[in-house]
Amino acid sequence: MTTIEADAVIIGSGPAGVSAAWPIVEAGFSVVMLDAAARPTPEPPAMDLTEFRRSGDGWRHAYGDDLCGLALGGLRSPKFATRIGQAVLADACHPMIRATDFMPTRSFSAGGLSKMWGAVAPAYDDWDLREYPIRKRDLDPSYRALAARIGLSGGDDDLTDFHGSGLPLQPPRWLTPIGARLLDRYCRSKPLPGFMLGTARNAVATETIADRRPCNSCGLCLYGCARGAIYDSTHDLAGLRRKPNFRYISPALVTRLPAIDDPALTVDIEGKGHYSVAKARVLVLAAGTLNSTGLVLARCLRAGRKQRLLTNPVAALAFFLPSRIGQPLADTTFSLAQLSYRLEISESSDYASGNLYTADGLPLAILAEKLPVSRPTALHLSALMASALVLATFFLPGRYSQNAVTLNIRGDGREELVVEGRISEDTNMLILEGIKKLARAMRHLGAIAVPGSRSIPVSGTDAHLAGTLPMKEHGEDLTCTPDCELRPWRGLFVVDGSCLPDLPSKHCTFTIMANADRVGRVLVKRLGNNRVGLSI
Ligand SMILES: Cc1cc2nc3c(=O)[nH]c(=O)nc-3n(C[C@H](O)[C@H](O)[C@H](O)COP(=O)(O)OP(=O)(O)OC[C@H]3O[C@@H](n4cnc5c(N)ncnc54)[C@H](O)[C@@H]3O)c2cc1C
Ligand code: SF4
User: Fold this and answer.
1) In the predicted model, is pLDDT for residue 533 greater than 90?
2) Distance (Å) from CA 465 to ligand 1 centroid
3) Is the CB of 495 under 6 A from ligand 2?
4) How confident is the model at residue 525 (pLDDT cuts 50, 70, 90)?
5) CB 352 within 8 A of CB 394
6) How many CA atoms lie within 13 A of 117 on its CB side?
7) Region 363-374: what's the mean pLDDT?
8) Percentage of the chain with pLDDT > 90?
9) Plot region of 261 (φ>0 → left; ψ -120 to 50 → alpha; else → beta)
């Protein structure tokens, strides 16, 4: 048994963990990051789209060497089926999870889910934060620091304030002709009331950042970015590992959090066949919402108590631009979000939002799944329509989700997290109404909804998981203080999605990161002038 000691111990190397680490490391404190990751993720294809199409090897990246991804079905992002996606989602085993009507997306890998994310990265505004005990001004310095470090690209248009203004932005060089054309039509036409369109805000570098090369529109985003243009948190991890006061340990699966009255904040760790403990002056939990919630509930044996779990109810829909049908596939493209929209939801001042994607970089089999005709016809149509298709996502705010997590002690004495998902009839109706409005707005721009292409997947498919240990000004046990210290512990801070008290329909990870950076800055003050050296 070895003992690890540091000023701060951080559990998890995803976007939340690395963001909390930076300010503490830069202030000179010793930081140990524990990560359950046991295997490296596969390398993305280093070629261009034409070479990829000709290589005859693309299927490996699209579905894995054993074609396992083909069995996953079409109701989730095509990223789940890819070789990288399968590796990122594999091995997640602690705590065990039993899910009904819910897709429990979580990861045990370096960089966490950011190794396969879509990189859409808007900031929240004060309306989005209205249920939070903090305001936008508390996050602003962190949003700015992060935008410069991770590389944020986007345009200056109707959605600039919605996505967050005043941030250092790189130009959206990834905008394809079809994206530019829709945006142009939107700017020329009289937009429909309650609908706003603009370029997406992506954590994609279009200018060189350290050893990451700018996006060259190779179109292979779905399979990972060999140029490193798409930000993922292994980029930050590499930077942190160059600092002498930072240590990354993996595989290091945290199996037990400290007891509530343990001032040494001792955690139990399982490595490759050996066991260790880590002690810290502050402990930061960033294992992803489901993993962190499981660890917390197991430590205080809160079996049977239901915690609310927020997700964004989501739908997807395909559109086509008739004038582009039959056009040859482009040699360059970009497969992450092109455009984003904001759509007012009826009878409330709240909004839905979503993104538009071109389809010319996707495998035909994925497009065929979206078409409501027989498989051979669908494949034929996909080939004809790929360059004319636009795929849209539609997200509702998290308050429309009705999920719950509970800790269950099984017959064999082992703990499992039970996750129950639910989308109510009212929410389904709201989605259908919202999608109708979106279709009307898109028709105005010359894009027609593909009949039968709408899908509403189960809760959790959005992978925006939050709210189980929410920050509140004054709260009961298992809520966080505004500084994200988990009640009733002293010195245990939660910085992943668990601590967000509300989920607007915007994507949440940029805010998870900004909040984690904010907490990192708070911890620098907490740690004061004393320092302990790294002891491993
Ligand atoms: C297909 C897909 C697309 C997405 N697209 C977007 C998007 O466009 N925009 C957006 O905002 N969000 C998106 N997301 C969500 C985004 O990826 C997550 O919000 C984000 O990764 C959460 O970061 P995190 O650090 O909290 O957790 P994670 O990324 O899950 O990282 C958790 C880390 O903790 C480690 N860990 C877990 N348990 C333990 C343990 N017991 N002991 C030690 N280490 C542990 C893991 O190995 C990992 O390093 C997407 C997700 C998916 C799956
Ligand atoms: S982000 Fe740009 S360079 Fe990277 S895979 Fe996508 S298109 Fe290619």
Assistant:
1) no
2) 9
3) no
4) very high
5) yes
6) 26
7) 70
8) 72
9) alpha
Between 529 and 197, the more confident residue is 197
* Upper half-sphere CA count for residue 206 (Cβ side, 13 Å): 16
225 CA → ligand 2 middle, Å: 5
Looking at the CA of 505, which ligand is closest? 1
Q: Rounded to whole angstroms, how far apart are CA atoms 316 and 391?
A: 7
Q: Which of 222, 218, 394 is nearest to 318 (CA)?
A: 394
Ligand 2 neighbour 229 (Cβ under 6 A):
yes
Long-range contact set of residues 363-368: C-beta below 8 Å, sequence gap at least 24: 363/58, 363/59, 363/62, 363/78, 365/62, 365/70, 366/74, 366/78, 366/81
167-218 pLDDT, tens digit per residue, is 999 999 999 999 999 999 999 987 789 999 999 999 999 999 989 999 999 9
Q: What is the DSSP string of 380-408?
A: HHHHHHGGGEEEEEEE--GGG--EEEEEE
Q: What mean pLDDT value characterizes the chain?
A: 91
Which distant-in-sequence residues (6+ apart) come within 8 Å of 450 by Cβ? 317, 318, 319, 320, 370, 371, 389
User: How many Å apart are CA 339 and CA 344, to the nearest integer?
Assistant: 17
Quick one: which atom of ligand 1 is closest to the CA of 287?
34
Each residue of 113-124: pLDDT tens digit? 999 999 999 999
Question: Rounded distance, CA 323 to CA 343, Å?
Answer: 26
Mean pLDDT for the stretch of residues 518-531: 93
List beta partners, residue 153: 170, 202
Q: What is the pLDDT of residue 370?
A: 64
Q: What is the pTM of this model?
A: 0.96
Does 20 contact ligand 1 (Cβ within 6 A)? no
Asked whether 393 and 319 are in contact (CB, 8 A), the reply is no
Can you tell me the mean pLDDT for 41-63? Answer: 81
Q: Confirm or reject: Cβ of 143 under 6 Å from ligand 1.
A: no
Where do we find the tokens 């890819």?
82
Atom 2 of ligand 1, nearest CA residue: 117
Q: State the DSSP H helix or E strand holding residue 500, giving kind and residue range, or none if neither.
A: none
**Tens-digit pLDDT profile for residues 265-294:** 999 999 877 778 888 999 999 999 999 999
pLDDT number for residue 71: 67
Strands annotated E in 167-215: 195-199
The pair of structure tokens assigned to 526 is 């907490």
Q: Residue 306: what residue type?
A: K
Centre of ligand 1 to C-alpha 110, Å, is 10
Bond into 42 cis (ω within 30)? no
Rg (CA), the chain: 23
- Ligand positioned closest to the Cα atom of 212: 2
Q: How far is CA 507 from the centre of its chain?
A: 7
Is pLDDT larger for residue 76 or for residue 221?
A: 221
